[in-house]
Automatic annotation (TrEMBL):
It holds the Pfam family Pentapeptide. Transmembrane segments: none annotated. The lineage of its organism: Bacteria, Pseudomonadati, Pseudomonadota, Gammaproteobacteria, Orbales. PANTHER family: BTB_POZ DOMAIN-CONTAINING PROTEIN KCTD9. It comes from Gilliamella apicola. InterPro entries: 5peptide_repeat, Pentapeptide-BTB/POZ_domain. It comes from the Bacteria. This is Pentapeptide repeat-containing protein.
Amino acid sequence: MNSNEMNEILEQHEIWIFSRGKNGEKADLKNAKLGDAELSGVNLRSANLRGADLGGVDLRGADLNDADLRGANLRGSNLRGADLRGANLRGANLREANLRGTDLKSASLKGADLKGSDLKGADLDYTDLSSADLSNADLRGVDLNNADLQDINLTSTDLPESTFIIFGEKYFISICGDNVRVGCEVHSASEWRQFSKQDIIDMGDDWLKFHPRLLDIIDFYCGKGERPEWLKAQNDDL
C-alpha cells in the first residue's frame, strides 16, 4: 500500500469517526502490510487492523481506541503513549514493542506475545492479560490490581514494586500492594481477614477449607495480621 492510498484511507476514516458513521468510510486494514507506513499520532479508533503487519511501525501517540488488532504483528513497534483502551489485541505479537505509558485500559491481550516488551508506566486497569507471554517484559510502575493475570508467563519479568504472583495454589493469587486477587475475587488484605464465615461460604463450596491457607499467604507477603473470631473459634474446636 502506497502513501497516497494510506492517506486516503485515514482521511475517510476520520470523516467516518466525526460524522458518527454517516459519511466517509471506516478503515479496513485487515491483513494489510503496513511495515513502511508512518502512523505516529494517527486516528485509527475502531479500525479493523486484524492480522495487519505493523512490525516496527512508529505508532507513538496513535488513537487505537477499540481497534481490532487480533493476531496483528506489532513486533518491535513503538506504541509509546498510544491510546489502546478497549482494543482487541488477542493473540497479537507485541514482542519487544515499546508500550511505555500506553493506555491499555480494558484492552484484551489474551494470549498475546509481549516477550521483552516495555510496558513501564502503562495503564493496564481491567486489561485481560490471561495466557499472555510477558517473559522478560518491563512492568515497573504498572498498576496490576484489576488486570486478569491468569496463566501468564512471567519468567524474568520486571514486576511493579510490592507485586507478587502466586502459582500452584487452588486458586490463582496475585498481590498488588494491599489488594489481593484470588480467582475472580479482589479485596484488600484487611478485608480478607475480616470476612464473616457466611461471606466465605458465599464465595463457593471449597472456600472455607482454603481460607486459612489464603490468610497464611497474605501474612507472608503483606505482614502478619489478625484472624477473624469465627476462625479462631473453629481452630479452638479442632
